[in-house]
Amino acid sequence: QQQVKQSPQSLIVQKGGISIINCAYENTAFDYFPWYQQFPGKGPALLIAIRPDVSEKKEGRFTISFNKSAKQFSLHIMDSQPGDSATYFCAAVYSGNTPLVFGKGTRLSVIA
Amino acid sequence: GAVVSQHPSWVICKSGTSVKIECRSLDFQATTMFWYRQFPKQSLMLMATSNEGSKATYEQGVEKDKFLINHASLTLSTLTVTSAHPEDSSFYICSARYGGSSNQPQHFGDGTRLSIL
Q1: CB pair distance less than 8 Å for A41 and B111
Q2: DSSP letters along A61-84, please?
Q3: Rg, chain B, Cα only
Q4: What is the pLDDT along chain A (112 residues), one digit of tens a residue?
Q5: B106 with A45: Cβ contact below 8 A
Q6: Strands B10-13 and B112-116, how do they pair?
Q7: DSSP assignment, residue B85?
Q8: Which of B31, B42, B110 is nearest residue A43 as measured by Cβ atoms?
Q9: CB–CB contact A99 B106 (8 Å)
């Protein structure tokens, strides 16, 4: 059973456009929702994270929108650049010393 | 801050040999370390969770005798792939977290690409 569903699987966006990646979760015990960015041959790097008591968090060009009632959260990349081309993973975790639960990832390609 | 160093980054070895991968948290004490395996174009698959000084907890389907994990200190965990075979070839990534709260993010190393000939 996949606890965090991520879509789309792949995404192509024009330079300067907005990239939007969506995730949905099932376990209401989750209380921390990070997004990771992974370049080929590298480990995932923490990009931005949110807790469910906040509906939106923005850091530079990256924004997380969180809808607790719908159990959904999304990543928006404004003014997308070719350097943003990478695989993005949403994740969720609940209290205690438990590991992250990852979505299946979205391969983003930003074309000039 | 929050740097996790993984070594080696790439290793090629013959079938039947054992390979050790090191994971170090450079600027924080990692209460918990996690080991993942990632196949091409797929998500990360959790192999095991280890707490300093305790035995690792393996995920279902992961052979604990094949993948030996040691978390001897708050800054070092090792994964040893014993008697490696071609099907063990993969990208292995470690992750470290400080503290037991979900608020503490997991930080990842840059992975080790293991190729077994």
Answers
A1: yes
A2: TEEEEEETTTTEEEEEESS--GGG
A3: 13
A4: 569 999 999 999 999 999 999 999 999 999 999 999 999 999 999 999 999 999 999 999 999 999 999 999 999 999 999 999 999 999 999 877 788 999 999 999 999 9
A5: no
A6: parallel
A7: -
A8: B110
A9: yes
Residues 6+ apart with CB under 8 A from A50: A32, A33, A34, A56, A57, A64, A66, A73
CB count within 10 Å of CB A33 equals 25
Q: How far apart, in whole angstroms, are the C-alpha atoms of residue A20 and residue A30? A: 22
Of A43, A93, A98, the CB nearest to B109: A43
Cβ–Cβ gap B44/A99 under 8 Å? no
Residue B106 CB burial class (10 angstroms; 0-12, 13-18, ≥19): buried
The pLDDT, as a whole number, for residue B100 is 63
* pLDDT tens digits in sequence order for chain B, 117 residues long: 679 999 999 999 999 999 999 999 998 888 899 999 999 999 999 999 998 888 899 999 999 999 999 988 889 999 999 999 999 999 999 999 987 666 778 999 999 999 999
